[in-house]
Amino acid sequence: MRPDTPAENVDHTAEAARLERTADRYPEDAEALLLQAAAHLELAGDRTAATTLYDRLLSSHDSLENPFLVRALKASNLWEYGHEAEARAIIEGIRSASPRDPAPWVIVAESLEAHDELEQAQQTFTEGAELLLTDVAEPPYSTHPLLFGRHRVRRMLGVGHDELDMLADTLHSSPVSLDELHDPKRVWSLGSDNPAELAAEISRLRAELGTYREALSRPFPVAVLHWPAGELSELVAAYPTLAEEYPSHEEHLATIEGSLRELASSGTPNLGIVTGTVPSYEAFAASEGSSPADTTLLPQYATTLAARGRAVEWPPQRGTSCWCGSGQPYQECHGS
What we know:
Number of strands: 3
CATH superfamily of the largest domain: Tetratricopeptide repeat domain
Number of domains: 3
CATH class of the largest domain: Mainly Alpha
Radius of gyration: 22 Å
């Protein structure tokens, strides 16, 4: 979510302005683009301007895809420049609402942790983990930061391991264990005059940074294009040759689920789905100097949507609605 780029290498203010202009050009992607712009403004130290962008999103007449994420980011930003009371109120509101997305839980818990509210941070991490991981056979990748953050805070509090901590240990892939990475005494090693201690700490930090960068670099390398029924009808009516690609909407949906299951069984990670619209696709075709009837544009369009932050994770988390838009839980729809 947040750009991981050193301030000396990027003009964050200029990048934020560019993203705002892009959001004006692509209003359907405004939420993702403005969140990135706000992150750049935070990195530039202009937290007031970042709050303005968060407020712009929250006051938008268009419904947000991730309203709790926006609120969580706003709370974290507010607390960083002295608006503690308002930040706490937003955090409590998010916890009470119990969102089904792990990202808001992680952001508010880390905000509490950053301000030495370790007990509250632990409670928040725990609430999110218990909510999202109950009756889940395999924790989705998006929930891993919840478990790792909870492990870290409990290690700082000196609390013994429980089942969720052991699950975090199981999911952790770095050669350096979580107990070592989250050891509170590590900070003392950074001030040591002993070369061996410093070398050991550098090794640990490299392992931790490698894991963090791996997490940041997990976009959706394979994103499958989904057309809602109305959009597909409009698309085929405007470009009849695409009827060979899309014989019917039901077959289109079945093909998406089947393709994703095949990819998953072959070991392809981080699968996602992007939802297309005819105006957006026509604009993309025009930008490529091609006709929307060209079927080779379809995967390129899907990749472009994913790069603009439009992909959603597949398979959906347990209890959430199916990706097809039916409104039914995924396990009772295409996930059955």
